[in-house]
């Protein structure tokens, strides 16, 4: 299993970031390739454009609200998992640490694209872009 970790500091209180991260309907606004998302309990359904093909995936979300840690894993489609940890910087700023776990072959099969180092670089750019878009979304919604 390969792991990628990224973080970003955003200009909103921790609770604001936590609430936005849990609004599945906003995922298409900051997660590249997600066309629609809807939550049903602990399961979130994602309609995704994966490698030029429309596909549906389900993810299970497991929260540790006292620690402000959101864990997720796919329950259908490619085997993916990750966590979002929110850390208060001060009353108006939050650091989001994202951890993404994947099998390189699974990513290529499900989404197409490069292999090896090029794939790792593409995934890193994608996660970084998603975090930047989340930052923009949550800061504009204040």
Describe the structure in your own words.
It contains 4 helices and 7 strands, in the order βααββββββαα. By secondary structure, the protein is of the alpha+beta class. It has a single domain (2-140), classed as 2-Layer Sandwich (Alpha-D-Glucose-1,6-Bisphosphate, Chain A, domain 4), CATH 3.30.530.20. Strands 1-7-6-5-4-3-2 form a 7-stranded antiparallel beta sheet. Strand 6 and strand 7 form a beta hairpin. The N and C termini lie far apart (37 Å). The mean pLDDT is 87.
Short description:
This protein has 142 residues and is an alpha+beta fold. It is built from 4 helices and 7 strands. The mean pLDDT is 87.
List the SSEs and their pairings.
Elements (H helix, E strand, L loop, with lengths): L1 E9 L3 H8 L5 H4 L3 E7 L2 E8 L2 E12 L4 E6 L5 E11 L2 E10 L1 H8 L4 H25 L2
Antiparallel strand pairs: 1-7, 2-3, 3-4, 4-5, 5-6, 6-7
Counted by DSSP, the helix tally is 4
For the biggest sheet, the summary is: 7 strands, antiparallel
Mean pLDDT: 87
Strand content: 35-45%
Alpha-beta content class: alpha+beta
Number of strands: 7
CATH top level label? Alpha Beta
Strands of the biggest beta sheet: in what spatial order? 1-7-6-5-4-3-2
